[in-house]
Design goal:
- The structure holds 2 protein chains of 2 kinds.
- Chain A has helices at 26-36, 89-92, 120-124, 146-149, 162-166, 183-191, 229-242; strands at residues 12-17, 45-46, 54-55, 60-66, 74-80, 99-101, 108-110, 131-132, 139-140, 172-176, 207-209.
- Chain A is built from 7 helices and 11 strands.
- In chain A, the strands form 5 sheets. A 3-stranded mixed sheet of chain A has the order 10-1-11. A two-stranded antiparallel sheet of chain A has the order 2-3. In chain A, strands 4-5 form a two-stranded antiparallel ribbon.
- Chain A has a single domain (12-219), classed as Alpha-Beta Plaits (2-Layer Sandwich), CATH 3.30.70.20.
- By secondary structure, chain B is α/β, with parallel strands linked by helices.
- Among the domains of chain B are: 12-57 and 565-597 and 641-678, Phosphorylase Kinase, domain 1 (2-Layer Sandwich); 78-150 and 431-564, Rossmann fold (3-Layer(aba) Sandwich); 755-904, Barwin-like endoglucanases, CATH 2.40.40.
- Helices cover 25% and strands 15% of the residues of chain B.
- Chain B is built from 25 helices and 33 strands.
- In chain B, the strands form 10 sheets. A 7-stranded mixed sheet of chain B has the order 5-4-24-23-22-6-7, covered by helices on one side. In chain B, strands 29-31-30-33-28-32 form a 6-stranded mixed sheet. In chain B, strands 11-10-9-20 form a 4-stranded parallel sheet, with helices on both faces.
- In chain B, a hairpin with a 2-residue loop joins strand 30 (812-817) and strand 31.
- In chain B, helix 5 packs across helix 14.
- The two termini of chain B are 36 Å apart.
- At the A-B interface, helix 1, strand 2, strand 3, strand 5 and helix 4 of A face strand 3, helix 1, helix 6, helix 7 and strand 11 of B.
Chain lengths: 245, 929
């Protein structure tokens, strides 16, 4: 079993805007591309051109239909990756100490050289955010691009996770959720950012911004006609309209 | 409990080198940084400096590494050795391949150039391929626009000098209401995602009008789940509401459009044309004097309400039509599947933002009549639409209606509104007209494609008035077919109607699969023989980078490179990458060398042009002018000083115009693979009428003299075709087309029922397709990452149909149209118009193609709707089979499809199933890496 560090002041994480995510999967493959050549073992694919292709992804987008009691059904795109929980059950369950949470910034990582691929952490994670790489036999998960965000070989503007850098809609935000003055914390405060499944007691760092209320067009009052065209005829309408030039 | 934090390297070296080029996964053409380590591509990300994507990149672009290493890449030229369609090939050398092509083509050029047809699919070098075909002398050239979105493009150009996507975009930084019609994940995809993000960040609103609530419609603040094919009616009803309330921009209409022009109402051969002065300039009545004067007179104030010699203005004709009861929300609600209250609310919200939330920029500018304005005033409502409303047989008129709506609101080329991207705006009359006069051994008489102004510009043979082109573009059947009709090439060639051809050359066009209507039939046509045992299309040359379904149906394969192994230019002569604030173009260059014996198709064409002695590509003494495509990109001059690339000309400092610069490509590479020139502040809006913009455009080489114009609410060229149908033109349509021309070529937007509705009540549902964002406009299924995201395509069924049929998860259905039947897996979707079913397009693959294993889900459960769609409509009893196309442009009416559905027992695999084709490449390995 592995211990968690004392809660860090700095809590790096993602804020994902469900009002803006169009479900394009850009973050999914940008993550795959970076991490296939980045931290730890590559993200392998099995039966890649065959009948049952499957591979390791650290970030996936799921789509859910929601049918409200009134109004039109909706589709919500929901990107899902490790939430870097403060009470990370995937860490405490790890028999070898391979799963750990960094004391410095709260990022949850897997030390692949200590990972025995037992899969306990994936069972413990209530979010399904970990995937065992079938080729390397080690547990893979979102690293928050720990090899990008501090990387002095990258321009400062690029020191963000690959998913955030690539998101075309700007639906993904990265920052310190431990700092109430950070841009991400402000965004969470303004938009009512949510924890995922708080009842699990995992205290995730990542937050989701809920979709804004939808389908309220009919609250707009209809336009008032210039006049009763039936009564005045087209000529009357034209006179009234052109008087306003 | 233990705790151990290993030391990790948080600053690893990212790569050896970054090479910046242009993506080719779709038509966005984003800038990319390609990271190389030990000479191999290891990572691809967006280029932050690039004007299109500003650093972001979509799922396709980010998976580019899987395209460059895909096992489906063709490896070497091939010659067919078995029957066509059998997939039996032998690999041959390039010398042999080019020798064969020359042997086939040279005699055709010398004797009958029209017997060679050249059509391109996802070609991004059309200014080059069209020049090549023109130089060859065949009238038979076009790209894929005819089965894509020509309705949107042509309607935009005829109405206002450009449409959406490559022509223009919403003012994303200022617009407050964005209304999106139809499937639109398909063009301008990253800029739209970025734009929606910006609008939402500012608290603006997005309204989606689409039968299907996915993608952008899923994040839309309001969703209008319209019935397919009725968008034009909805738009005209919104116009009805706006006019009734006086919520149109009268000042804008009188100054910048032909709303104040007078329409001749006297009977005769000019009825319905604009009244003109002796010099041919349309006349308006000046409110200051009451005199009839040319529309461009200095200081003129056109009177929208004028009547002159019994002739009224365009505005009055429009208002009278659209104020009519036919367009009232109550009258259209049922047909559109949208409640009247919702239509009224849509109009009210549009009007509120347009007229109560105006934007003002402190920027003076001077218009073409010489008046200086001290502000730029804008109305922050914008629209976008592409294939969704285009791909219907009423698509041209629907797209016209949308453009007219924008103009009535005064929201085109103003702050917060729709903005053209240079080199647009460019009205129809400033484009070429079609050219189709061919002679043995001679180039064609001009560019193939263009914008007819009347029947005199149709591509009809001068002797017998029969179609000059194999696709019958620019004929009475579809007079304004500005992008050709690629979907009719194979059926027409096989039918010998209008004539037989000898050699068909296709580039990146999967015509034996997802790019054809009636796929099974097309496969049969490609293998059909005449009485002599010869193929009806005797020779087919095909170029593609991948083992697509089309490969098996060609006789000679010229393997192309992937996008990272080639030179390309995304040129201002063609379809550039400009943004509203910038003119911009870009290149691709070989950031890695091919590891196979393949060549970029454009370089192959340069080589072939030299062998064939095509005039534009050889010197006066017959030697090849260009070494390869890169050499052409630098040294070709379309007009003196104007070439494919507009940056770094002359000694490296000239922009737009300048002598060829031998170091131009290196300069582009050093600049990130693109060049951008900012539009001056004074020229950024009101471009069609803005002197500063017109002068800047001339300096850039877009055109040679300023060419201001006014928007064509009333589209006079269309009226000229109606007049011909009424008997008033020396060129006369065949009698069986007269009524249709009169009805559909209305110079003011109309709505008519899509032709597919004739299928009748037996086919109660509409069936649609869209491409997923992660595969739009791209080769997706052989991509190991993307196929894990979209490997199957169920037919999505709305709740009412799902329940009526008693469907359960995992069920299959038989889907039947007047043209055929398919059996496919179904899935339930609630956020869907109740009369509509849909699926992802082009996920289904033929067994053996794309280096997928034959039991891949794409080949066993994946399917195409194409089998249900015929390129010809059912016979009507008048002896004629009408093309399943828009009668104005010939755009393929993919979305007119009507079907019926019934639950069936699950078959072994989706039906129809075709036998596997042998793969022209070795089997893929199982796992990666």
């Amino acid at each position: 079993m592995t211990a968690l560090p004392p809660p860090s002041a700095k809590k790096l994480g993602l804020v994902i805007d469900l009002d803006t995510c169009v479900g394009c999967h850009a973050c999914v493959t940008a993550c795959k591309g970076w991490n296939d050549q980045g931290y730890g073992a590559p993200l392998s694919d099995q039966d890649a051109w065959g009948a049952n292709p499957s591979g390791t992804f650290l970030n996936r987008v799921h789509s859910y239909e929601v049918t409200p009691e009134t109004g039109a059904p909706q589709l919500v795109h929901f990107p899902k990756s490790c939430l870097h929980c403060e009470n990370a059950p995937c860490v405490t369950v790890c028999p070898t100490g391979a799963s750990y949470k960094r004391a410095e910034d709260g990022i949850v990582l897997v030390n692949e050289s200590a990972c025995i691929g037992c899969g306990l952490c994936a069972w413990a994670c209530p979010y399904g955010a970990r995937e065992l790489d079938q080729a390397a036999g080690v547990m893979k998960k979102c690293t928050l691009c720990v090899d990008r965000i501090y990387n002095e070989n990258l321009p400062e503007v690029d020191r963000v996770p690959a998913c955030v850098r690539t998101c075309p809609a700007g639906a993904r935000h990265f920052g310190d959720l431990g700092d109430p003055d950070s841009a991400v914390s402000q965004l969470v405060a303004e938009r009512g950012g949510m924890e995922l499944m708080p009842e699990q007691g995992t205290r995730p760092v990542n937050r989701y911004l809920p979709p804004r209320p939808k389908d309220r067009l009919e609250e707009t009052a209809p336009l008032a006609p210039l006049l009763d065209i039936q009564a005045t005829g087209f000529a009357g309408w034209l006179d009234r309209l052109l008087d306003r030039i | 409990m233990t705790r151990h934090e290993p030391r990790i390297d948080t600053s690893p070296k990212v790569s050896d080198e970054v090479r910046r080029t242009t993506c080719y996964m779709c038509a966005c053409r984003c800038g990319i940084n390609v990271h190389l380590t030990s000479g191999k591509v290891t990572y691809i990300e967006g280029n932050r400096d690039h004007p299109v994507n500003k650093g972001v990149l979509c799922a396709k672009g980010s998976s580019g590494i899987m395209q460059v290493t895909a096992p489906s890449r063709l490896r070497k030229p091939m010659r067919r050795v078995g029957p066509r369609g059998s997939g039996a090939f032998e690999e041959i050398s390039w010398d042999e391949a080019l020798g064969i092509a020359t042997q086939w083509l040279a005699p055709l050029r010398a004797t009958a150039p029209e017997k060679f047809a050249f059509f391109t699919g996802r070609d991004q070098s059309q200014s080059f391929t069209s020049l090549w075909a023109q130089s060859f002398g065949t009238p038979n050239y076009a790209a894929h626009g005819g089965f894509c979105s020509v309705n949107m493009a042509a309607a935009g150009i005829y109405t206002m000098g450009g449409a959406f996507w490559e022509f223009g975009q919403p003012d994303w930084d200022r617009t407050r209401l964005f209304v999106l019609f139809g499937v639109a994940e398909d063009h301008d995809s990253n800029p739209i995602k970025m734009g929606i993000g910006k609008i939402k960040e500012r608290g603006g609103r997005v309204i989606g009008v689409n039968p299907i609530r996915t993608g952008y419609n899923a994040v839309a603040d309001d969703w209008i789940g319209i019935t397919p094919g009725t968008d034009g009616l909805l738009i005209l009803s919104v116009i009805h509401e706006l006019l009734g309330a006086g919520k149109v921009d009268l000042d804008y209409l009188s100054r910048w459009t032909n709303a104040g022009c007078l329409i001749d109402e006297t009977e005769g051969d000019e009825k319905g044309l604009l009244l003109r002065d002796d010099l041919g300039k349309p006349l308006v009545i000046d409110r200051r004097t009451g005199d009839a004067v040319p529309y461009d007179t200095a200081g003129v104030r056109p009177d929208l309400g004028a009547v002159h010699k019994g002739c009224r203005t365009v505005f009055q004709h429009m208002a009278e039509r659209y104020l009519g009861a036919d367009y009232a929300p109550e009258a259209v609600a049922d047909r559109c599947g949208v409640p009247a209250a919702r239509i009224r609310a849509l109009a009210a919200e549009i009007a509120d933002v347009a007229f109560n939330q105006t934007i003002e920029l402190d920027q003076t500018w001077t218009d073409f009549r010489g008046e200086t304005h001290d502000k730029m005033v804008g109305r922050p409502v914008t629209f976008h639409a592409m294939r969704g409303i285009s791909a219907h047989s009423n698509g041209f008129q629907t797209a016209r209606a949308l453009h007219v709506l924008q103009i009535l609101l005064g929201t085109v080329e103003v702050p917060g509104g729709f903005r053209f991207k240079p080199p647009y705006p460019k009205p129809a009359h400033a484009h070429p007209t079609p050219h189709s006069v061919y002679m043995p051994g001679r180039p064609l008489d001009g560019p193939h494609l263009g914008f007819p102004q009347g029947p005199e510009h149709l591509a009809l043979k001068l002797d017998d008035q029969s179609p000059a082109r194999i696709d019958k573009a620019f004929t009475w059947e579809n007079p304004l077919s500005a992008h050709g009709l690629m979907h009719m090439v194979i059926p027409n060639a096989v039918a010998g109607d209008p004539y037989r051809i000898d050699t068909l050359m296709l580039y990146m066009a999967n015509m034996s699969w997802n790019s054809s209507m009636n796929t099974g039939e097309v496969m049969e046509m490609l293998t059909r023989k005449d009485g002599n045992g010869d193929y009806m299309i005797p020779r087919i040359i095909y170029s593609d980078a991948y083992a697509s379904e089309m490969v098996a149906y060609a006789d000679l394969i010229l393997p192309d490179t992937t996008y990272l192994e080639r030179h390309d230019c995304i040129s201002l002569l063609d379809r550039p990458i400009c943004e509203a604030d910038h003119a911009a173009d870009a290149i691709r260059w070989p950031v890695v060398e091919p590891d196979r014996d393949v060549r970029g198709f454009q370089s192959v064409l340069v080589d072939l042009a030299g062998r064939l002695g095509l005039p534009a590509f050889v010197t006066d003494d017959g030697r090849p002018k260009y070494r390869d495509y890169a050499d052409y990109m630098v040294n070709h001059q379309r007009r003196p000083g104007v070439g494919p690339l507009f940056g770094f000309r002359g000694h490296g400092k000239d922009v737009g115009r300048g002598a060829p610069n031998p170091n131009q490509i290196n300069a582009y590479i050093a600049n990130g693979g693109f060049f951008a020139a900012e539009v001056p502040d004074e020229a950024k809006f009101f471009k069609p009428w803005n002197r500063a913009y017109q002068d800047w455009a001339v300096g850039m080489g877009f055109y040679d003299t300023p060419q201001p114009y006014v928007f064509q609410l009333y589209c006079e060229p269309m009226r000229r075709f109606q007049l011909a149908a009424e008997g008033y033109h020396e060129r006369q349509p065949p009698d069986h087309l007269r009524d249709r021309i009169r009805a559909t070529m209305d110079p003011l937007p109309i709505w008519y029922e899509p032709f597919g509705e004739e299928a009748g009540a037996a086919y109660p549902l509409h069936a649609l397709t869209q491409r997923p964002m992660a595969m739009y406009h791209s080769w997706g299924s052989q991509n190991a990452w993307l196929r894990q995201i979209h490997g199957v395509n169920p037919l999505y069924v709305p709740t009412n149909v799902w329940e009526a049929q008693g469907f359960r998860e995992g069920d299959w259905a038989r889907l039947t149209s007047p043209n055929g039947t398919i059996t496919v897996p179904v899935a339930h979707m609630a956020a869907l118009n109740g009369d509509t079913v849909w699926t992802w397009n082009a996920i289904g693959k033929r067994k053996g193609a794309w280096a997928l294993s034959p039991d891949a889900p794409e080949a066993t459960r994946g399917f195409l709707l194409n089998h249900l769609i015929s390129e010809l409509l059912p016979e009507r009893g008048d002896g004629h089979r009408w093309s399943n196309s828009d009668p104005i442009t010939g755009q393929a009416a993919w979305f007119d499809l009507r079907v019926k559905i019934e639950r069936v027992d699950a078959p072994d695999e989706a039906q129809p199933a075709f036998p596997p084709i042998p793969s022209p490449v070795p089997p893929a390995r199982r796992n990666r890496p």
